[in-house]
Design brief:
- With 310 residues, the protein is α/β, with parallel strands linked by helices.
- The protein has two domains: 4-133, ph1033 like fold (Roll); 146-309, Trna Endonuclease, Chain: A, domain 1, CATH 3.40.1350.10.
- The chain is 31% helix and 26% strand.
- It has helices at 17-31, 118-129, 137-154, 157-168, 218-234, 252-260, 297-309, and strands at 4-8, 35-38, 51-56, 59-65, 71-72, 83-86, 93-100, 113-115, 178-185, 191-197, 203-208, 211-212, 241-247, 249-250, 264-267, 273-275, 281-283.
- The chain has a five-stranded mixed sheet with strand order 7-4-3-1-8, sandwiched between helices. A five-stranded mixed sheet has the order 9-10-11-13-15, sandwiched between helices. It has a three-stranded antiparallel sheet with strand order 2-6-5, with no helix packed on it.
- It is elongated.
Length: 310
């Protein structure tokens, strides 16, 4: 049975990336009779009828069927090349769309030539003929892992303590803020961490996190979702419901995204959180009796200089 060989082209040789390879397959190879050259590395199992699949930078671009076996090549004007193979010109085709390795579960092996199974090839062809997915398989797996971690973290002790603190001290969010409900439940079984109303009697949906790191947009997405869900359920215009992401620390990049999509942010530390002598964190002034041990040692070390400035 003819072999299926994945050929990883060099970005140094194809500096135009995918577009350069597409032009090479569609125009350049057919014009010179269907042959291509190889350097030191050659596909030793490339027999007549074998199929070569071309890729660059972990993206699969096209394919061709070998018309001959690999033969030696010597030309003084191109001393870097040592072998040549001819392809059936009608079989040299760039795919309708480029397929990333992650879409078809191909790993980056670091080899120039990789021998594929029939099942792997069928996955590539199927992906090349379909509309590209919004998310790759690897991205979906990563998000599922993050989702499981996020759901577990939601009910942590630190998260509960922080919600309790905000429920008892709504003024730390904004003056004249009134607490309305905790874990407001929707028919979809989604629930809002906290719901408040402001001085204009507008609902304020609050998504509570402990620490929002770079790329941690889960809380932002929740705040956006719950704002619109509550507006629909209450028959309000979307503009009449506010959403807010509250945490002890929010990465600047996430803050920028929140601003872009209309989600307000509140860093609780800036609202009067200080280090207690016991090593726990408590609210300053007359709330010293309310311990909030929701800050990790690492986060405390990063935040402490901020406190000394204020």
């Amino acid at each position: 049975m003819p072999n299926l060989i994945l050929f990883r082209l060099s970005p140094k040789e194809f500096r135009g990336g995918v577009n350069k390879v597409r032009r090479w397959l569609k125009r350049d190879i057919p014009r010179r009779g269907g042959w291509i050259l190889f350097r030191k590395d050659t596909p030793k199992k490339l027999t007549t009828g074998s199929k070569m699949i071309f890729s660059i930078e972990n993206r699969i671009v096209g394919e061709a069927i070998a018309k001959s076996e690999v033969e030696s090549y010597r030309d003084k004007s191109e001393p870097q090349y040592e072998a040549r193979v001819f392809f059936e010109v009608p079989s040299i085709i760039p795919y309708r769309r480029v397929v990333s390795f992650s879409e078809v579960d191909l790993r980056h092996y670091g080899r120039v030539f990789t021998y594929l199974s029939q099942a792997q090839y069928k996955e590539i062809v199927k992906a090349a003929r379909t509309t590209p997915p919004l998310q790759s398989t690897q991205t979906r797996r990563r998000l599922k892992r993050q989702g499981r971690h996020y759901r577990r973290g939601e009910e942590s002790t630190r998260h509960k303590r922080l919600k309790a603190f905000l429920r008892q001290h709504p003024d730390k969010l904004e003056s004249e803020m009134t607490f309305r409900e905790e874990e407001y439940l929707f028919p979809t079984n989604d629930s809002i961490d906290l719901v408040f109303s402001d001085c204009n009697d507008r609902y304020v949906v609050v998504e509570v996190e402990v620490e929002v790191v770079k790329g941690g947009i889960e809380g932002l997405l929740q705040a956006i979702k719950y704002k619109h869900m509550l507006a629909v359920e209450k028959g309000l215009d979307f503009r009449d419901v506010r959403s807010m992401l509250v945490a002890v620390e929010i990465h600047p990049s996430v803050m920028a995204m929140c601003k872009k999509y209309g989600v307000e942010t509140k860093v609780l530390f800036d609202a009067g959180v200080s280090q207690h002598s016991s090593g726990k964190w408590s609210c300053a002034s007359h709330h010293k009796d309310l311990d909030i041990p929701f800050v990790t040692a690492g986060l405390r070390a990063r935040l402490y200089p901020m406190h000394t400035m204020g």
